[in-house]
Structure formats: C-alpha cells, structure tokens
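Project standup — Tuesday

K.O.: blocked on the structure for the chain from last sprint. Re-posting the sequence here as requested.
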Amino acid sequence: MNNLKQSSISKSRSYISCLSEAHRMLFDNFRLIFGRTWMYFAALALLAALYFSLYTHVLLYGNTTTLSVLISVASLVTLCAEVVYYARIMFLVNGRPMKWNIRRCAVLAGVYVLFWLVVALVYAAVSYGVIQSKQTVNLLELRPMFIAFSCVSMLIGVLLIPYVYSGVKYLVDPESKLKRILLSSYVTGLKHIGLIFIALFLAVLCVVICALFVSIPIIIVLIADAFSVFGVNYFNDPTGLPSYFHIIQYAVFTFTFFIWAYLNVFVVFVCYFLYGSIETREKEKREFIKSEKSEE
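H.V.: unblocked you, prediction finished:
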C-alpha cells in the first residue's frame, strides 16, 4: 500500500467512521502523499487553469472560432489529466502499477462521458421536438421543459450514487470486470445507498466549505476583471488593470486548483473506506446465511 499509514479496510464502518478514517489517513500521510503526487496535481492545476482562463475570456470578451477550438482541446487534455490524477491517488492505496490504474480510470471516465453524452443528446432531441412543434417559442414557454430536465438530471444523479461503490471496486479489485460493476456491483451498492449518500454528502460539504475559503483569490480577480470589462463596454472607461493582470489571474487559478486537488483526495479516501465497509458487510452477510443453512 505504498507505506501509507491506514486502518484495515476490511471492517464494517458507519459513515462517521469512514469520514474519520479518511481524515486520519490523509493527514497522517500528507507528507508522503504530497511527495508522490505534487507533479501530477500541478500538471492538472496548470491545465485546468488554462481551460478556466479561456472559458472566462469567452464569457467576458466574447467568443471566436479560434477560442472555441482552444477550449475544446483544453477540455480534452484536462480530462486526460484528471484520469491520471485519479490514477495516481488510487496508486497510493491499491499498490497497482500506474499503467494499470490509468487504464482502469480511463475506462470509467469513458463510460461516464458516454453516458452523459447520451443524456445530452436525448435532451437536445426533446428540446428540438418541442421547439419544432410550437414553431415560435420564447424562453418563458420553455421553462417547464428546463424544470423537467433539472428534475430528471437530479434523479439520474441519485440513481448513480451506488456506482461510487462499483467504481472503487473496479479500481481496487483486480478481479472485477466492467460488466459486473455496471450490473451486479451496482445492485450491491444500491442496498447501501443510504450509507454512501450520507457519507458523501458530509464529505463533499466539508470540502466545499474549505474550497470556498481557498477560492477567495479567484473571486477577487474575477470580480476585478468583470468590473473592468463592464466599465470599458458601458462607460468607455480605461481598463484600469495592469498589462500583466491575466498572468496574475492564471497564477491564482493554478494555485487554487492545486489546493482543490488535495482537498478532493479526502473525498476519494472516504469512497475507499465506504467500499471496504460495504465489502465487509456483504461478506459478513454471506457468512451468516451460510452458517444458518449449515445449522439447518
């Protein structure tokens, strides 16, 4: 396990215990984790900052064909960096080679992207059909459809919660197959959806609160940029920003995303202990049923 100090994963835990063990595992091993991940996390932060900078530029200054191409390329490269990012985290806990982890993380990422692409195409087809049927339509008339899309998306999100267990199992257990995690492992995760939901909700809530404090510099530079654009466009004021402002902005984005990457490690570790807890509970359940049958 790469010499990480951690409690046994083969133990039935409550959601509070999973959070506690993930917290302990992160902070007891932070120096080791940082030393083995900082280059990967820095690469992701640099690429994510580039993508976010381009996207922000489009929102504030307008879009062009060149920017659209650059954003598309940046998003794909950032997605690849995220695959390597998660592979590196799993490398720390499962001890498997990086190539093995990258391959498995890439498979999961591909399934995830493909699924939401299909959902997006269905939404687009429905929207096109509604607009075509009414010929002329305004945004107010489309509001019920947007509300329906939001509700369906939230429902899909809830139904995807059991895949937290399935995904970690695929990344930890070398014997697991993609077909099994999409079907039988999902059913197992569904039985423990309450445990997964509460633990993840609390973990994400903690991370979001911390991320909000870390994000204060980003908020400041974005507000400064937005007010500058507003003044130039509507009052013909001079920009008031130094020529090197966007360099500072990019540096702030990179530094913030780098810290976010380590905050997210806590959530991954919570998922790791949730997987171990569910595996243990299912094993104990099977042994109990087996003992009951043998006594009969």
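K.O.: great, moving the ticket to review. The chain has eleven helices and no strands. The chain has a mean pLDDT of 90.
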